[in-house]
Amino acid sequence: MSATLADLTIVVVTWHNAADLPPLFASLASARAAGAELVVVDNASRDDTTAVVRTLVPDATLITNTANRGFAAGANQGLAASYRPFVLFLNPDTVVAPETLPRVLAYLEDLPAVGVVGCRTLNEDGAPQPTVDRFH
Predict the structure, then answer these.
(1) Which residues is 41 bridged to in the sheet?
(2) Is 11 in contact with 79 (CB distance < 8 Å)?
(3) How far, in Å, CA of 34 to CA of 41, rounded?
(4) C-alpha to C-alpha distance for 70 and 115, rounded to whole angstroms
(5) Pair 28, 40: CB distance under 8 Å
(6) How far is CA 8 from CA 63, 119, 120, in A?
(7) Phi and psi for 67 in degrees, rounded to 5?
(8) CA 43 to CA 53: how far, in whole Å?
(9) Residue 14 pairs with which residues in a beta bridge?
(10) 124 to 11, 20, 88: CA distances (angstroms)
């Protein structure tokens, strides 16, 4: 069986991110059209974050917390809302390149012993953004 985007849940945890979400959602449009599920967990934003989600991606699962529970708790809520075999956690200020998600799913399918993948992160100007460090 080949993994497809319909096997993927994308979890985004937000807190006051109304301005960040439109570019993210636009970058996910083709993946969502191919069947990827979107779960947005909002940590009690007081801006228009939930309105932006409801307007731009009305079919997304939106979980609204009454308090800011933090990223980890929100990520766990998003994970619990999905039953798909692959889950991607994204920050709301992310823009995903079009080829990224199919390539990652193919990689994971080819190497079933791999449980976690971290992708290269680039700044807006295309320069690599350091995202990992060795433990001291």
Answers:
(1) 13, 63
(2) yes
(3) 22
(4) 24
(5) no
(6) 18, 16, 19
(7) -145, 160
(8) 13
(9) 42
(10) 22, 13, 21
- Residue spans of alpha helices (H) in 34-99: 49-56, 71-80
Q: Which helix (H) or strand (E) holds 9?
A: strand 8-14
14-62 pLDDT tens trace? 999 999 999 999 999 999 999 999 999 999 999 999 999 999 999 999 9
Confidence of residue 119 (pLDDT cuts 50, 70, 90): confident
**Is 0.85 surpassed by the pTM of this model?**
yes
Which amino acid is it at 135? Answer: F
**Using CA atoms, how far apart are residues 18 and 53, in angstroms rounded to an integer?**
8
* Dihedral sign, Cα of residue 100, residue 106, residue 110, residue 111: positive
Is 30 in contact with 17 (CB distance < 8 Å)? no
Q: Find tokens 């001291």 and name the residue.
A: 136
CA distance 67 to 97: 32
Strand order in the sheet with 8-14: 61-65, 37-43, 8-14, 86-90
Q: How many CB atoms lie within 10 A of CB 28?
A: 24
